[in-house]
Write a structure and sequence with these properties.
This protein is of the alpha+beta class and 59 residues long. The chain has one domain. 53% of the residues lie in helices and 27% in strands. The protein has a two-stranded antiparallel sheet with strand order 1-2.
């Protein structure tokens, strides 16, 4: 089962939708808790920003 997650970027106020399998969300939550991170949203934002930078550099 996949869950839709909404992430709002403060800089542009854009909402994107991503599909992540439920077990991946649970794994990410547990890793965040183990490392003292309150929420997994900053990690996902960081990954998306990194992907976008790489995509722009590629183009």
């Amino acid at each position: 089962m996949e869950e839709n997650r909404n992430i709002i970027f403060d800089e542009k106020k854009e909402t994107i939708h991503i599909r992540v399998p439920k077990h991946e969300i649970d794994l990410l939550r547990s890793k965040c808790k183990q490392n003292g991170v309150d929420s997994y949203a900053p990690i996902i934002r960081s990954l998306i920003f990194r992907f976008n930078r790489n995509l722009i550099n590629f183009m």
